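Hi C.,

You asked whether I'd gotten around to modeling the 194-residue construct. I have! Everything is below, sequence then structure, no commentary in between.
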Amino acid sequence: MNEYKVFNILDMAEAIGETNLKELLSDFSCPKNEEIQKFVRTNAYDFARKKLSVTYLVVNEDNYIEAIFALAHKAVEIGDASLSNSKRKKISRYAVLDSGTGSYTVSAFLIAQFGKNYALDADKRLSGNELMDLVFEVLERVQREIGGGVVFLECEDKPQLLNFYQNEKNGFIPFNERYSVTDHVKYIQLFNFF
């Protein structure tokens, strides 16, 4: 297994300079999701500077970006009806049920972007599960500093993506969906505890 280091994009900019960072980001390729590719190349650094989200760069031993993930913090509503009794008990540690809406409003960590660099050879790329493990390593460090325990994400309504996020290892649970009029795409919202 390859060794990876995870760098906050702001730390990387400080270490190598903004110009070198932008050049490094320009090589990121994600044809499976051009939204992620565009985000990395044009918005990731600016979003981090503005404190909208922070992108983490997963760098291999050859100093190439293997993958990225972006994290943010956001309030989200999770409907009570979609939860088992054990999930209700667990989420009540982080939120209170609003009896009027029948949902929990919880301050959660958002995995805003999550993707691999397809510019690298397939046999050298880390797996999605390895990338998710790295996400949770960062989240656990942040959790230790500020608390919290709920993470959520949105993904396109595609069986392969939903199977990945909901598999036994990752364990995300769907709780809502939304339709983007701009993109004409249905997104499924999923959450998990950590």
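If it helps when you're writing up: The mean pLDDT is 94.

Thanks,
B.
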